[in-house]
């Protein structure tokens, strides 16, 4: 059975989530308290409804009990964001992802039972900063405070070496998930295959170890 998603608050963040999920073919129940905004999503989401997400009865009447994953993307109104999150968990929505606008907001959301909390500006800021620090880093995904997945262009001195030669697992405690070459991605790179210029490594490891590895490459 296909998952049912709900997006609450159709500003830039919620709107973008709603458009992406809908484009991927998922059923999305989109709500916002503003009529003008909801009108924009009539032809995008499976159901777009004008509603106040802090009203439990309304959410139940809209069928939120059947929602598998709800995304609360209410902007600056912290009170509504908290209340909507609590109500969704009370109703029994399995997974609730809520956007926080500050660290305090995030702490409270975690306390009241939000399953996932995101701070889009902060998270994207970190990602962009990590790309900026090193021109060799193509992409960066934070797995936790300590661990990340990083896409990195291999250093010149690695050209002609094999993964066995580099042995990043014992030398740096890092795992290589894949090697990208041109448009091809090899998700089980052979240990004896030689690296060539422009190869991109997808690594997973502790941030401190990835940093050590990057410094070593420079
Ligand atoms: P962004 O920074 O992602 O653009 P906005 O603050 O512009 O966020 O958007 C938040 C949206 O959430 C607005 O469209 C607003 O109408 C909606 N919203 C705020 N409170 C509620 C609520 N209680 N119920 C439903 N929608 C709400």
Automatic annotation (TrEMBL):
The lineage of its organism: Bacteria, Bacillati, Bacillota, Bacilli, Bacillales. This is Trk system potassium uptake protein TrkA. Gene3D superfamilies: NAD(P)-binding Rossmann-like Domain, Regulator of K+ conductance, C-terminal domain. It comes from the Bacteria. Residues 2-118 form the RCK N-terminal domain. Residues 135-218 form the RCK C-terminal domain. PROSITE patterns: RCK_C, RCK_N. GO terms for molecular function: monoatomic cation transmembrane transporter activity. InterPro entries: NAD(P)-bd_dom_sf, RCK_C, RCK_C_sf, RCK_N, Trk_Ktr_HKT_K-transport.
């Amino acid at each position: 059975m296909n998952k049912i998603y709900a997006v609450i608050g159709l500003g830039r963040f919620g709107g973008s989530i709603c458009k992406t999920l809908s484009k991927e073919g998922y059923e999305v129940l989109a709500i916002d308290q503003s009529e003008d905004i909801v009108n924009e999503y009539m032809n995008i989401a499976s159901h777009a409804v004008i509603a106040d997400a802090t009203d439990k009865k309304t959410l139940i009447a809209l069928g939120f009990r059947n929602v598998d994953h709800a995304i609360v993307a209410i902007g600056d109104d912290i009170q509504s964001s908290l209340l909507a999150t609590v109500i969704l968990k009370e109703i029994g929505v399995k997974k609730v992802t809520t956007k926080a606008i500050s660290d305090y907001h995030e702490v409270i959301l975690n306390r009241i039972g939000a399953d996932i909390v995101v701070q889009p500006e902060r998270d994207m800021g970190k990602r962009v900063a990590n790309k900026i620090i090193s021109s060799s880093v193509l992409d960066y995904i934070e797995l936790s405070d300590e661990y990340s997945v990083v896409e990195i262009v291999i250093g010149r001195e690695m050209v002609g070496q094999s993964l066995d030669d580099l042995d990043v697992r014992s030398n740096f405690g890092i795992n290589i998930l894949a090697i990208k070459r041109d448009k091809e991605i090899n998700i089980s790179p052979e240990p004896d295959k030689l690296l060539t210029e422009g190869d991109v490594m997808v690594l997973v490891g502790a941030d401190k170890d990835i940093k050590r590895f990057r410094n070593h490459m420079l």
